[in-house]
Structures are given as C-alpha cells and as structure tokens.
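Supplementary notes for students who missed Thursday's class. We covered one full example, reproduced here. Read the sequence, then the structure, then the short commentary at the end.
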Amino acid sequence: MDPTAPHLNLATPVGDAIGLLSGLAAAAGWLLTHWYLLGLLVAGCWGLAEWVVRRLARKASAERMALELVPAKHFEPGLEEIFRRGVQLARASTSMPWWAPRRTKAVQIRLRADGSSPLRYRIEGPAGGERLLSITPFGPAVAVKRGRPVVDKPRKHVVRAEFILRGKPTALLRDVPLDPDPLQPLVDAVCDLQAGLGDLAELRLDIQRAPKWTLQARRVQLMSDARRRERGEAQRAARWLRQDAGGVEDSLGWQLQQLIGSKSAGSGGGRRLVMPPVPRRVEPTEALGKLADDDHVVRVQLLVMCASDTEGRAEARLAQLQAALDVFGGGSRWAMRGWHLGPWRLGADRWPSRRGFARRWELGHCQPPRPNWVRLEELTGLLKPPTVRCRLPLLASDLPTFEFGNPELLLQGIHQGPDGRRRLVATYANETLFEVGVGKAGGGKTERALAQAIGWAHAGGGLMFVDPHRDSWPRALPFLAHDTLADRTALIDLGAHGSFPQVSSWNPLDMRHGQVVHEVVEATADAFASVLGWDDATAPRALTILTATLAVLVAVNLAACQARRPEDQTTLFHVRPLLTDSAFRTTALAGVEARLDEETRAWWQTVFPTLPPDAFAVVLNPLTRLAANPVTRAFLGQAAGVYNIRAAMDSKMIVWVCPGGNGPTDRLITALLARDLLRAVRSRRDVSEARRVPFRAYFDELITLTGAAPETIASMFEDFRKYRVHVHGMTQLLARLPAPVRLSLVQNASALASTAGSQSAVAPVTAEWGDEPPPHVVAALDRFEHYVSLTVRGRRVGPVKITGPHLDDVFAAYARPDNTAAFERAARTTAGTAPLDQLTARARGQLGRVNAFLSQLAPTTTPDSQEKTYK
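Structure (token representation):
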C-alpha cells in the first residue's frame, strides 16, 4: 500500500451515529424520568388551543339568528318539500366565517312548549344563513318571521338529558309516516303543560354537515370490521366442519362402511378431504348501510330540558318525551346518555357532563359524544312544523278561560283537557260577531245560547232573545231574577197566558223617537212583502198601495208628535179606513198634504181614484187577520207603544221577545219586529263608532224566523257588525234555511257549532271544516256535546269538542228561584204591559182620537170639496 495514497476515515461517521444514538437514548431516558414535564407541556398546548377555540366559538355564536315558523291550519307538505328543507338546513350550517370552529357550524331546531302555545317551532343558526332559511319550500303555508330572544325565568326543578343513537351504527331510524304527523307523540307529551305551575319542555336538535374525511375513515373502519367478521365466520364454519367430519369418521357405522367397501373394492380407504369454506365477499352497500354515500349525511345532537316549579313534574315530562322519541326507533334508536344506579341517574344533570351540556345548550354548539350520523330522510318528522295531520291541544292561550262578570268574554262551553281538567272556555266579545248553532232538537243548542246570554247579561251587556215558543224564558228566569237586572229586563210575551193576560204594546209607525220617515215606511212595507211574498214582479200594485198608505199615516204621526200629542198617532190598523173610508182619507190627506212629497201627492190625486175596490183586498187581508186576533190588535193598536228596540240597545236592556207561535199572523209579527230591528240598528249611524253600545240578538228556531223574514235576517248577518250589534242564531237544519240566510250565516260566522244530528244534517257544517271531524263523528255526539270553531285574536280555533254549559251547574250560584215571580212582574212592568181587554178597547177607539186630531190639524178643510179629488 502506498502510504501517500488517500484513505477513508470511517471513525467519524460511526462516531457521529453512535453519538446521535446516545443522545437520543439520553433524551428518551430524561423524558422517561421527567415524563410529567412532557405531560404538562401537552396539556398546556391543548388547554391553550381549547381556550382559543372556545373564544372563537363564543364570538361566532354571538352572531347567530333565529326564525320562528308558524304553520297555517291547512299546512300539509310532501316528502320532497320536507327533504328540500333538510338540504337547506344542512347547507345553512356552513354559513359561518372561515375562522369559526366546527362546533359552531350547525343549525338548531328548537321545539318548545311552556303552556302558552302547543309547540313552538324555531330555527336558530348562523347569521349568514338567514336569507337561505327565510324562503322555505313550504311556501305561504308557513309564515316565517324573525324570532325574538327567549328569556326563561328560573324554575325550581330542572332536569336535562342528552339523547344519542344506539344500535347498529349503519342502521336507519324508523321510517315514520306523515299521517299522523310524526310530531304527534311529542305534542302529546307536552299537551298538559300548565303555565301557572312553571312547566317548560324544550327539545333542541342540532344539524351539522358530516366531514368527508371523518366519514371516509369511518367507512374504512366499518369495512375492516366487516371483513374481519366475515373471516371469523369462515374460520368458525371451517372449524365446525372439521369437527363434524371427524365425528363422522370416528363413528362405528362409518368404519363398518369403509371396511365393507374396502374389501369389495380390493383396496383400503382413507380419510376424506375436507374443503374449508371460502370467506364471502363483503359488499360495501351492505356493510356501510346508510353511510355508503356522502350525500345528505349529517351529524346531529339531541338535547332535552324540562323544568317546573312543582316537584316531580319535570321528571315525569322527561319520561314522556323519552317515550315519544321511542317512536322513531328502528334498527337505530334514540337512547338517553348515562347510567342508572338505583334511584340515581348519571347523565347530563351530573358531573362531569352538566357543565358541557350547559355550554352547548346556551351557545348552540354541536359537540355530540358520538358521531350520531343520520341521513336527512331519517329526520323527516323533525324538519317541519306541525302539519294539518297533527292534533294540537287547546291551551288557555288559544282559548281564554271564562270569568263571571267579565264583559270582555263570552261563554262558549266546557273543555276537557288531555289531563282530564275541565274549564269554562270563552271567546272575546268584540271578536264574536256572528254565531251559528246547528243540531237536532234537544241537543243543547238553546241551553248553550241561554248560558251565553245569561253570562253576558250579568256582565252588564244588553241583548234581545227572540223565541217563538217561549220555552227559553221560564228556563232562564231563575238565573236572571236578580234585583240588579230587574230595571233592565223587559218581557214582550204575545202568548197572553193566564186568566188575566197582559200584553205590551208597539206601534211600528210611532214617530216619537226621531225616526226617519222613509225608513219607517220602508221597514214596514218590506216586512209585509217578505211574509206575503210580494215583489215588483208578482205584486207591484200591492206594494205601491201599501207604501203610499204608510207614507200618509207616518206623516200624520209626525204631525201629532210635533204637536206634542203622541197619543193621537195612527197605527197599522188605520190602513183600512184610509183606503176604504173617503171621509177619513180626505181629512188625513188634507191635514198632511204639505208633508207629503210631490210624487206621493200626485199618486193619491191621479192614480188612486182609478183603482178598483178589489185592488185593496191583497193589502187589507193580512191586516184583517191581525185585527181579528185580540192579542195582536192590542199589541199593534196603541198609538204610543212601549217597545223601542233602539232605546233598548243604547241603554243595555235585556229584551225577551216571544211572538207566540209560527202561524201566518205570528210570522207577520216576527217580520215586523225583525225589520224594525234592522232599521233601528242601521239608525245607529248617527252615533260615532266608539259610542255605539255593544248589543247581542239571539234568534232561536231560525227556520221559523227566516220563514217570515229571510232577506231581513240575511241582511242582519251582513250589516250588523258595522254597528256593534251581533247575532246568534240556532237552527235544527242548516239546509232548510233560505239560501240568502244560509250563505250569509256561513260566510260571516265567527263561531260555528254543531251538536248531534243525522249525517246529512251536519254535513253542511263539517264541510266548512274540511270534514275534520267527519260527519259521522259529529252525528254520534252525546247530548250537550258540541264541535265548534271559534275566532280568537283573528285566528280560527278548532273545530274543538266542548260540552255545552248546563245552567243548573254553571250558574248554580246565580239561581234565585224564590225571586222569579217578582222578577217577571218587574219585567212586564218595564215592558209597559196592560190588561188585554183594556188595550183592545183602547185600540178600537183610536180612530176617533185620530179623527179629532186631524180635524184640529186642518179646521178649514172642506171634505166635500176634497172628496172628488181623492175619491
């Protein structure tokens, strides 16, 4: 070897490597010796990172928004609409700033009940997703409005729970149908909440898009587990196969068979070859289940809190919600996280989970302890508000509780809640404009109307109750017989009962109270026309004759009132002498000629003399029937009648009107009263709306009343609202009402009620409710039970099943049976009743008083000179 040649020095690299290894070994030994320092460093880094993340998460949570979803009564979405809503929610969960931690990138569905509403549906999420979530696939059937912050007062007893998915991780939740609504179990669980007890139940579902890398890792794990299980199954099957084969070969029968077979074949037999089974190929769709595809897979977090001021109610509510969530259980199910140790439950209410639960609850962070991966199709029942297929409970906030003596409330009936509690329910008086009750005789329509009227009367309200059969008066009398109501109650009874009958009085042509002349003429003529079927096509001459005659009589009455002689006014029974007595006609026309319009004077001068005598028969016949009946003759034959419905309205009177029957004469009286009521109500236009006193008119037996005045009753349901007069009608058959009345009733009814009856009879009512409930359900109601739809705060409530109030039960404290006789006498006195004979005699002598007044009114008139003109 040449000593001058260069050579490699291997000592340096080896030494360096040995030194490096020594250093690493020393460092490892130091770390093993001082392991706590490494742990402190890792813990510190983790704590710093968690502190930063939490600060960022709080900042991001402060920018969240809230939307309140209020479904309409007819809300009934399809599966595609619900699925699209789920896609919107998943997309909106990512509408956060880039720096926001993943736990804040979620949308929260809040289902809340506190006794003030059946179930509030609220969406909370990133502020950037508000525009996306404000326009829903549900269209106008769901109103979306900005949600206000929810502030809960502290409750004494609070329980919390977190639900996680248990079962096979790749299995689906149960496919719950949309009919009935999937939310129905949750609604039923909170239907008996009482706001007065501080009850509260809230469920929060957080939805977050699942990260693809996490899903991919989970798929790899699931496939690996599936292949391992398949290999294990194959090995287990091979082992059992070898054991079975060995057992067969060792058996005596197999050995004899082999011995015989070997001798005959001339050769020995050996052991048979056993082929082990090959592992089956694992299909990804079978192994991965709902996680096979990335599309529409989300991570969810389900938190529940129940609270109450009464011990035990919060725990019972949580158990009900847990049972409600069991409905969604299938291959996978919702299970409460935690353990039970005897009477104790270790979960979200205990350390160490409680603090994390509170943070997630308050800030809306989605940090479930397990992946809780689901597909949007599994959450169909929770992605929408309650639909038309959901049976919502009736709460005190939906329908107020009736308070005796409160003039703002109108009694409707007795409602029994899901928990069996019964309460008197009411509507607001200013919203209950018109009401219709339908059902068979004896079903409780009149009883319910009487209870409502009695409650309204004791609250200080004025009313008019029209009953052709008079049965309602003795039924209501014991509960009205209070001294405070005696001065306000008037009984107009045309039945003339007893041995010494007394009757009130009314002059439809009375002009003492400042009525408008043409309105009085029109109201009276229209009443006759409606009962007798007159119109411009069938009886134009009769209408003209009656109108012209009434114009003269009303002019005479106006003159008598201006002369301060109201007792000398004419009545309806002076139509006959005006048409048939030339002397009376000449005197009357001469006395009021200046008060008649030119057209009326021309008619009397030119047309009337050309009319044949038989032209008056059609006008005089109904008046003859009225005059032949002593009761109607006494009632309508007084110059200064006591009955004045306009004054009764303005002074909050309680007027009970019993026409006496449903014959032709009674129908004419009813038509006159109805038309006068219409005129009186319309005359309230001379009073400002704020000064119009509310008044209620109850019409029992609408079939009888509308037979007399169909157009008048229809006009009432169309016009009275403007003048703060509200009509309540009862009838056995809606179909038997005249078409104008029926259409006006149904169109304007604030409350529509039905008792039991035949299916064909109640079908028109249930049709207005969309046949929910169907006719056969309403037809099977028990006595005093009703289905009724009501209007509260501008929204329709129901139809809801209520029990009609029975007077003996609801108003038992108001019963004064010992005061009924005195109260009825006071009611008759207020109505100005007098003995029938006395009024009849006075009606017969009224023509003489009118003649005397007319003679004084025009002393210079010469009958002979005028007779040719008006003959």
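Commentary. The longest strand covers residues 297-308. DSSP finds 32 helices and 24 strands in the chain. If anything here is unclear, bring it to office hours.
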